[in-house]
Amino acid sequence: MDDVALAAAGDAEAFERLYRRHVAKVHALARWLVGGNDVDDAVQEVFIRVWQKLGTFAGQSAFGTWLHRVAVNALLRRRETAGKLRARLVEDEVALGAAMAPVRHPDLQMAIERAVDTLPAGAREVFVLHDMEGYKHDEIAALLGIDPGTSRSQLHRARMLLRRVLA
Amino acid sequence: MHSEWTDLLSEYLDDELDAVTRRRVEHHLAECQSCAAVLNDLRRIVAVAPGYQGSNPSTELWPGIAAGIEARRVVTLPRRTGARWRELIAAGLLMAAAGAGATWYWVRGTVPAAGPVAEPPVLTAATPAGLNSARYDAAVAELEETLAANRARLDTATVRVLEQSLRSIDQAIAEARAAIQRDTANAYLNGQIAVNMRKKLNVLRLATRAIASET
């Protein structure tokens, strides 16, 4: 019996193992999609939500993929509930300035992850959802309450800003 | 680099352009090295992005999650008859005592002796990450008050074991808190404090719900 099945049957130790395996990525998602001082609380909320929904995991996708979908929904709902959605989509010139500053790092993977932190909120959210999590523009538009065309333009903007890590 | 062309490169990369525009972009890329270099950069970013590793939180979040899922388990327990409640309390006490003993053993490095356990000292160590100290204290105080006012509704054997187990849990929490003051970065001890705090809350909840079912 794997940890997913054990956890779904109520085994908290198996669930802790799943948590340890996935927390780094969920924490990054929370940092990118929620940010501020709410990140740790948001991660805890995500995993409690995942525990509650384990019984609905049908095994048709990888557990990690399913968990990330639950996480994205929970994080965006948390943010929306907090009334932050509109504010975060407003252009942030400070963030834009930081994103355009040159960054050099020998590890491209790590460099991009760090550079994502500095992207303006709108571009960051679309990049995370599209390029990191595999959502389509129509799905992103529905999740963020924006036009699919806006999603496309924000994605391109994010990618162009991230080119600096390749300099 | 020509922005009228580079603006199309993400959609080109994602295969979202119509056939005519796509052919025009490809024709330009064949002639413009700078735009081709931009496309190559974007391609590398898109290739690397899905493999992100993330980073672990700087504080231990599991105790709060464990408390959250345990609380939901207790809340969803069905109402039982008095006899069934006694079984549940007995099982809860057994688990609580086992957990408290494990902490005691870890802290002292020896198996706890049988017999009465001393009252824990008053400590000021911080509550572990994920547990709200004020809310926890208020919840425990409320449950203890309810239990004190209604303990006559439980049989004396249950009350005796209940009180002894709660003292053991308090002792385990106190010992772990004293130890963590000497080793503040010890995640195990931090987790054990949270686990035992949660167990105390659960035992008190079971006891008070048993009282309610006897009413």
Describe this structure in words.
The complex is a heterodimer of chains A (167) and B (215). Chain A has helices spanning 3-8, 12-33, 39-53, 63-81, 85-89, 93-100, 108-118, 121-132, 137-144, 148-162. Chain A has 2 domains: 1-83, Orthogonal Bundle (Rna Polymerase Sigma Factor, Chain: A), CATH 1.10.1740; 91-167, Arc Repressor Mutant, subunit A. Chain A is an all-alpha fold. Chain A has 10 helices and no strands. In chain A, helix 2 packs across helix 4, helix 8 (121-132) packs across helix 10 and helix 9 (137-144) packs across helix 10 (148-162). Chain B is mostly helical. Chain B folds into 2 domains: 3-51, no CATH class; 62-214, no CATH class. Helices cover 71% and strands 0% of the residues of chain B. In chain B, helix 5 packs parallel to helix 9 (187-214) and helix 6 runs parallel beside helix 8 (156-182). Chain B is elongated and about 90 Å long. The chains are: A mainly alpha (167), B mainly alpha (215).
